[in-house]
């Protein structure tokens, strides 16, 4: 493991410990405060609303939801109830879901917004109803009480650096395609900003797309258009903001008949993405430890519901277009390549060796020493 990787791993471990300790402190404070009002009178008998944006990206149902639900249960001795809904990429549906949460009189609300601007009115409505709102993963607009995510600009830096590394000599003046995320997602803008800080002045962007709804099929169509416009042999690298889109991009590159695929980036360390890395089809992904992020969101929601401050949980603040100084907890990220699969997703138990090294990937796994 190189020095940067070791630093990132240490940072992740420290982050997880900080969230754990902060959460313990929050729980103790909530039990001892005689001046708590409102929902704090309920102690641990809470209702926490959890709204996630879509179910196409594997992380939400496989990792985020169970991590958040477990942490809330742990913090409240199993007494809190989590009311869950998924908007399936529909901003209007998510707004209606907030209304339902208000009707159900939840004590706090965790929202990963489909559209960070469109949700602002619903956030205000919840706030007016006395319900504190935690923005999870994406910084929603409106009167947000707290925010937790990854260092999203750093994600872009990590992706950009990795792409240049993979391009080798072609990193000086080569042509790339940029496949950014959806414009409705504020994180996509941060990924793009970080990546361009690394890529600008070094490579030429032949084609660039903001991919509607992050959908792999839209990335596939965009990549087909880029290949048609630039020529299949004229693309030296592809910046893909996440793994799902990387899958659509690689399918388009293969269909174009390229004998050797250009390096393609990704994000989220999805199983299919990790398998493509093993097979040599995708150069890298960004591994984001979901545990610390989800646990921070749960800790913030419980603390707010119980009337406690976030001083022991939030380590910084951020500004949104509508709000200043939002208490924030950011989790560091790690560049995932074929060289550190053992030290990341396998070591952390995200996937098992059997899940990654299925029959189609066994030979490639053996070659990498994944046995």
Which features does this protein show?
single chain, 371 residues, alpha/beta, seven-stranded mixed sheet, 13 helices, disordered N terminus
Report on this structure:
- This protein is α/β, with parallel strands linked by helices.
- Helix content is 46%, strand content 15%.
- It has 13 helices and 12 strands.
- It has helices spanning 3-32, 58-75, 91-103, 120-128, 152-167, 186-199, 216-230, 243-255, 271-279, 290-305, 342-346, 353-356, 362-368; strands spanning 47-52, 81-86, 108-111, 133-136, 146-150, 175-180, 204-210, 237-240, 285-287, 316-318, 326-331, 334-336.
- The strands form 3 sheets. A 7-stranded mixed beta sheet has the order 2-1-3-4-5-11-10, with helices on both faces. A 3-stranded parallel beta sheet has the order 7-6-8, with helices on both faces. A two-stranded antiparallel sheet has the order 9-12.
- β1 (47-52), α2 and β2 (81-86) form a beta-alpha-beta unit.
- The longest helix is centred in the N-terminal third of the chain and has 30 residues, at 3-32.
- The protein is globular, with a radius of gyration of 21 Å.
- Residues 1-15 and 21-40 have low confidence and may be disordered.
Shape: globular
State the share of residues found in helices, binned by percent: 40-55%
* Terminal Cα span: 18 Å
Q: Strands of the biggest beta sheet: in what spatial order?
A: 2-1-3-4-5-11-10
| Largest beta-sheet details | 7 strands, mixed
Order of helices and strands: HEHEHEHEEHEHEHEHHEHEEEHHH
């Amino acid at each position: 493991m190189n020095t940067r990787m070791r630093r990132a791993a240490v940072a992740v471990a420290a982050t997880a410990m900080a969230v754990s300790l902060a959460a313990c402190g929050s729980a103790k404070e909530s039990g001892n405060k005689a001046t708590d009002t409102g929902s704090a009178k309920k102690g641990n008998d809470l209702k926490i609303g959890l709204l996630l944006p879509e179910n196409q990206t594997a992380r939400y149902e496989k990792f985020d939801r169970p991590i958040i639900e477990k942490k809330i249960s742990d913090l409240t001795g199993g007494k809190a109830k989590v009311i869950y809904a998924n908007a399936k990429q529909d901003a209007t549906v998510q707004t209606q879901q907030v209304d339902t949460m208000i009707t159900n009189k939840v004590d706090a609300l965790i929202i990963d917004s489909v559209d960070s601007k469109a949700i602002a009115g619903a956030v205000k409505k919840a706030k007016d109803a006395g319900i504190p709102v935690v923005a999870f993963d994406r910084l929603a607009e409106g009167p947000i009480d707290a925010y937790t995510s990854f260092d999203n600009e750093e994600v872009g830096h990590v992706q950009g650096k990795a792409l240049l590394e993979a391009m080798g000599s072609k990193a000086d003046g080569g042509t790339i395609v940029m496949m950014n995320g959806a414009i409705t997602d504020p994180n996509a803008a941060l990924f793009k900003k970080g990546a361009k800080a690394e890529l600008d002045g070094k490579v030429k962007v032949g084609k660039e797309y903001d991919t509607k709804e992050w959908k792999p099929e839209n990335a596939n169509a965009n990549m087909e258009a880029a290949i048609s416009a630039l020529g299949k042999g004229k693309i030296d690298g592809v910046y893909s903001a996440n793994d799902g889109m990387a899958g659509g991009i690689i399918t388009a590159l293969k269909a174009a008949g390229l004998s050797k695929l250009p390096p393609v980036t990704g994000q989220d360390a999805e199983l299919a993405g990790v398998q493509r890395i093993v097979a040599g089809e995708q150069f890298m992904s960004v591994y984001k430890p979901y545990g610390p992020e989800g646990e921070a969101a749960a800790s913030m929601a419980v603390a707010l519901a119980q009337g406690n401050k976030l001083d022991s949980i939030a380590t910084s603040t951020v500004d949104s277009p509508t709000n200043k100084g939002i208490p924030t907890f950011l989790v560091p990220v790690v560049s995932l390549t074929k060289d550190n699969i053992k030290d990341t997703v396998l070591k952390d138990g995200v996937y098992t060796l059997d899940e990654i090294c299925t029959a189609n990937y066994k030979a490639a796994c053996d070659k990498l020493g994944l046995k």
